[in-house]
Amino acid sequence: RLYQVEYAMEAIGHAGTCLGILANDGVLLAAERRNIHKLLDEVFFSEKIYKLN
């Protein structure tokens, strides 16, 4: 029995959705961020957007 594989499959089940789209003029990556900690300060972990060259 491979516990590492079972733990990996369980971690995938708890992960948020992720999407990648390849277009002629660029790449789009989008991911869902789920807050599993009720006491987590949302302002401290705010969204970050970076422009890539």
UniProtKB/TrEMBL annotation:
It comes from the Eukaryota. SUPFAM superfamilies: N-terminal nucleophile aminohydrolases (Ntn hydrolases). Pfam families: Proteasome. Gene3D superfamilies: Glutamine Phosphoribosylpyrophosphate, subunit 1, domain 1. This is Uncharacterized protein. It comes from Cirrhinus mrigala. The lineage of its organism: Eukaryota, Metazoa, Chordata, Craniata, Vertebrata.
